[in-house]
Amino acid sequence: MEQLTLQPVSRVEGSIKLPGSKSISNRTLLLAALGTGMTEIHDLLVSDDTSRMLEALQTLGVKLEKLSETNWRVYGCGGNFPNKSADIFLGNAGTAFRPLTAALALSTGHYHLHGVPRMHERPIGDLVDALRQIDCQITYKGNTGFPPLQISPCTTDVSKPIQIRGDVSSQFLTALLMALPLTGKQAVIEVVGELISKPYIEITLNLMAKFGVRVERQGWQRFTIPANSQYQNPGEITVEGDASSASYFLAAGAIAGKLTVQGVSQDSIQGDIRFAEALALMGASIEYGNNTSTASKPAQLNAIDLDCNHIPDAAMTLAILALFADGTTTLRNIASWRVKETDRLTAMATELRKVGALVEEGADYIQITPPAKLTPNAVIDTYDDHRMAMCFSLVCLGGVPITINDPKCVAKTFPDYFNVFDSICKR
Fold first, then answer.
1. How distant, in Å, are the alpha carbons of 12, 79, 96, 242, 362 from that of 129?
2. Cystine design at 62: which of 57, 87, 233, 364 (Cβ 3.0–4.6 Å)?
3. What is the 3-state secondary structure (H, E, C) of the chain?
4. 369 contact partners, CB below 8 Å, separation of at least 6
5. Half-sphere CA count of 159, side-chain side, radius 13 A
């Protein structure tokens, strides 16, 4: 297995430009494909996940033009994919698999959707159940409730409200919201239970509005797509920098110096920008500029007890910050970690113990007490999870070397992460 050893770092300083947001990139690609007209997308994320979406759209017959590594033209097909039969491989890209499942279920074609083994362990049953309520024809080709899937043509009936669970993954609701305008009819979605990761739904609604479809929302329990909704491509759109990726660099500034990230500020449409609020609660100094955010090291980082439902991905970075805080940190309402690229709750608890932390893992929380001194030369397993690798890179800021197994897993969202991280480290 490939390994990367990071030597101790005494301080960080400088400014970095963020790659595009994965969540915004894949949503924008699909909406542009479903719309009418052309969209030129600027600052698209270059990663495994966006590559899977681009490949899928090409397989479906959508016309794409690559202008540069980060700029693409997408010619929409108005929801009517030219290729009515396709085998589509989506790797471990949940932001591609879930929305495409819903869009293709309403697209009168025969499609086989599959991915890597871990993707076939990530639940999709709640989305399939919701789509079956409107008579979509979806068959499990392996274990019930999980990919791979076979999708067949159907005649949908959206005359009754569609019910979907909100407590497993917000991507299921995102998928429904993005696909239902294809029916051309009024459709109502009712969320059963608490909706987790609400900021990701806000991203979805914001982008749908940019493509001409405005969803009516009653709290977080009922969503109405108006009749005769149709996506209209805006001609041009720029992808924000990835607020989840910003968390590693803002955390680095809070731990070991001062760091500015370019590409996101407090007006971002991404919920993970609120990671900076959590940093401020821990005592870090936060400043915002024109499309920039800066974090500086305080005299002491303080432990926090925080409900992290609003920042599920960036909350992983808080678990690493807990190693540098005074006291015991508790991160709550993070059950969604268990159905991500890996079971992140167990993975995080296991690897934090390797560096000396005292960790309590619950069904939906993690409690971390830092050691008096970090254990040097820990070897961190990353579970083919990009965020595990990026999070644990920060441990070297505690003055100890650390080895990251399978560092190239960061290609999922940030292929150049370790080079960028090295550029701000002073040894």
1. 48, 22, 19, 31, 28
2. 57
3. CCEEEECCCCEEEEEEECCECHHHHHHHHHHHHHCECEEEEECCCCCHHHHHHHHHHHHCCCEEEECCCCCEEEECCCCCCCCCEEEEECCCCHHHHHHHHHHHHCCCCEEEEECCCCHHHCCCHHHHHHHHCCCCEEEECCCCCCCCEEEECCCCCCCCCEEEECCCCHHHHHHHHHHHHHHCCCEEEEEECCCCCHHHHHHHHHHHHHCCCCCEEECCCEEEECCCCCCECCEEEECCECHHHHHHHHHHHHHHEEEEEECCCCCCCCHHHHHHHHHHHCCCEEEEECCEEEEECCCCEECCEEECCCCCCCHHHHHHHHHHEECCEEEECCHHHHHCCCCHHHHHHHHHHHCCCEEEECCCEEEEECCCCCCCCEEECCCCCHHHHHHHHHHHHHCCCEEEECHHHHHHCCCCHHHHHHHCEEC
4. 327, 328, 329, 357, 358, 359
5. 2
Nearest-angstrom CA–CA distance, 61 and 82: 5
Terminal Cα-to-Cα distance of the chain (whole angstroms): 27
pLDDT tens, 322-370? 999 999 999 999 999 998 999 999 999 999 999 999 999 999 999 999 9
How far apart CA 46 and CA 327 sit, in angstroms, is 39
Residue 427 has pLDDT above 90, yes or no: no
Q: Is 313 a catalytic residue?
A: yes
- The tokens describing 35, both together, are 């719309």
Q: What is the structure's pLDDT at 26?
A: 98
Structure tokens at 274: 């609120």
